[in-house]
Predict the structure.
Amino acid sequence: MADFIPHTDTETREMLARIGVGHLDDLLSVYSQSISAEGLSDLDSLGSGCDERTLLSWFGSKAELNRDAGKAVVFRGAGAYDHFIPAAVGALIGRGEFLTSYTPYQPEASQGLLQAIFEFQTAISRLFGMEISNASLYDGATALAEAVLVAIRETDRRVVLLSEGLDPEVRSVVQTYLEGLSVRVDIIPLTEGFTDLPRLFERIDTTVACFVGVTPTFFGTVDRFDGLADKLHSSGALLIIHANPHSLALLKSPGEWGADLATGEGQPLGLPLASGGPYLGLMTARKKYVRRIPGRLAGLTKDSEGRSCFVLTLQAREQHIRREKANSNICSNETLLALSSLCYLSLLGPSGLREAAAGSWSNAHYLRDALISLPGVTQLFPDTEFFHEFILTFPVNANKVSEHLLERGVLGGLPLEALMGPDWSRRMLWCATECRTKEEMDEAVEQVRDILRILS
Amino acid sequence: MSFHEEFLNNDATGTTRPQMEPTLWQKSRPGARGVCPPGEDPGRFEDRMPSELRRTLPLGLPELSELDVVRHFTRLSQLNRGVDTHFYPLGSCTMKYNPKVMDRIPEIPGFRDLHPRMDENGMQGLLSVLHECEEALKTLLGMDAITLAPAAGAHGELTGILMARRYFESRNENNRTEILIPDSAHGTNPASAAMGGFTVHVLPSGADGGVDLDRLEKALSNRTALVMMTVPSTLGIFEKELSRMVSLVKSAGALLYMDGANFNAFMGILRPGDLGFDIVHINTHKTLATPHGGGGPGAGPVGVKAALAPFLPAPRIEKKGERFSLVSPKSSIGPIRSFIGSAMVLLRALGYIRMLGGKGARRVALYALLNANYLRTLLDGVLPRTGDGLCAHEFVLSAKELVPDGLHASDLAKEILDAGYYAPTISFPLIVPEALMVEPTETESKATLDRFAEDFRRIVDLAKKNPERLKGAPRLTPVARPDEVSAARDPVLTDPGSFVSHS
């Protein structure tokens, strides 16, 4: 058993004597009235403890049961992407001074982290083409939910329009967040994979708090929002754009579309797939909303001796000061993951980021071309631009295709029936990032060809 | 003589501070390249993607070599204090040692490189480990069901509150729109209640810092949905009349919520379920030693009694025979985040529980009490404390008596930084004027506590004799006190240098 308690028996005795009690259990008198005499018998089910080797070999044996990227080449995205991560990222965020610190409440002893948060805010603002960013939220889905809450508070309106291009699970998270708040959520359908703007314009009136646009959409298509910001603003509503930050190296940014708030999932910026988390919620905004947005903010200031330094600022928005009137209940965020993405962005730099994104785009198009050349395979929305994901319709059940591919060492596109309903039973959402090699793609295509032959 | 004592004896006011680090943009050199990723020149993309869909705004990212970047962040780390470098008595935050072996778990490829939308067949290992984590927490908390989904404690609070809403809706008790919260509670409690669409009713504390039973009884009504309690309270005090409070709340038909931020004080000793709580969240980065990473990640698992289990967030992990699957019950409040949870944090937490075993979990709590009470005893008489007799895992001192000399708790905190520690939590809980909340945790040695007590005592002595001296603290940190007022007046939240980037 290990418990990480440093005391020797002698020290424990000395400490108890100093306190004036005879035995450790005597300290439990703080709980006297609540402790049952028999104690907690079923604690034994937690085992008797173990050493490091035993622990790691147990986790190792469980991990063997998973089909990770080393066992099945990843052609699946849908919100979590297998991108290249430089080795230096892990080395830097693993430093104990960062890893084992708390929220930087004492700025003089936390300048390193505060500066890193400030730099993260800068990098993410620039990437999104927006004026400000916060220090992170839990993940992309909760970041979007919080942005919608900002729009509701800002406009004091109760109608929210969400693009159908949003990941259905992200949409559900937004709806969960709005559960207690009497807000009406309407879904704005896509036509051929992009927003039908004239139809959306007709839907905008003075009851609408915001429209949430998505790019690239869950279906992989690149959406367009010409004139939308002006139209929304003329009705007093806000434009929120939920974007994949990897794509923003090359695609028009939320700021260029005129967004008021923009959110995203930061996982593609240097975070591993990590079985789903922790990930990184990105929230950016126009500066006029700085007092409305949730989450920590690091700001530049001077110390009492005139030196430039960093500090958590505008804390009057936050729960520890404003309590029930706060912008949000968020306290812990994902600072360490924000640091990962900052390391990632500075290691790749502008050229590296553009090359990686171009690699994703290029691989996805190569893969699409190869897969649609197979008999009976067609692309949904073939005339709409896509970035690094696309939907294919197969002549057979997509779950079966995925099952067979996994057995052959390929994590194929995501079968969409579970998320989208029975009409989608033959459709899969495929993805290729910059990490896929031509050999891996050719091999996957041959496997699909063979599986289609067997299944049809 | 300690370095700090020597430093204080030396009357010089000026000190050489460690150098700050220029920002990434100040260090940026146009044309410099760092790590080369796989990929290709964007030329083909630009030829084929319509120009109205392409980015024209410069990226504004810094241009640096790999070594530039490594030095930059290594240097920044050196300007930051963590548990690995300093004693961190930050009350309520439970900054205990984060065992290094747990850092290896998120590096195991089977977890690190596993896609969250993997087919169920390909994620049986993950689901079985998370299921075991749920079972272990059920045992520790005495609850009937657990969700691992919440990303942090406050997220767990919101989850619990949304579940309570669904629970009362299912019973047609839509009149229950109020949540009662003691004035000593964490700010997240009222903020979560408001996000869940409830009205907050604040319960003033009694003279001993505990919940005033009469006031509680008066505040309870058929409008009360939930009473949120922190146990032990943020004052480090265990409610003496907890069982009476529980029966008052139950007889009013309301649910009882435990903010388990302080669960480290009684893990393996008491169970929230046995005490009568219906919903509880814990913070893995407090009780279960997962590193907090400078503000996060955390994880805030929530335990509930059977009556609330149908409302737990989707997806649920279901075990049938030896096979695990993910299901989304109709009655669920729905997902509260993407995917299954902060798996890498939860695996560390489970690793900690497995390494401790049942007896170890209990020892952790006992030694948290030992260290807090030992340090409290060493500091007896230095500053007045809220409460008397034994404390739980932390205690709160008040620096109110220094106010006439123009000093505040924050001034003591700054001198404590110079003495080579992180500072206690200051100005919380709000009900104690000039509060200093001290939580040593069980992983600190007697020698560290002895040294800290000695330094703390000397600092308070100095404050009384020479208050001016403290106003200039800290003198040994990279920077002096920041001007927080001007930072908030016209906030500068991004590096102005980032606009002149060349690409």
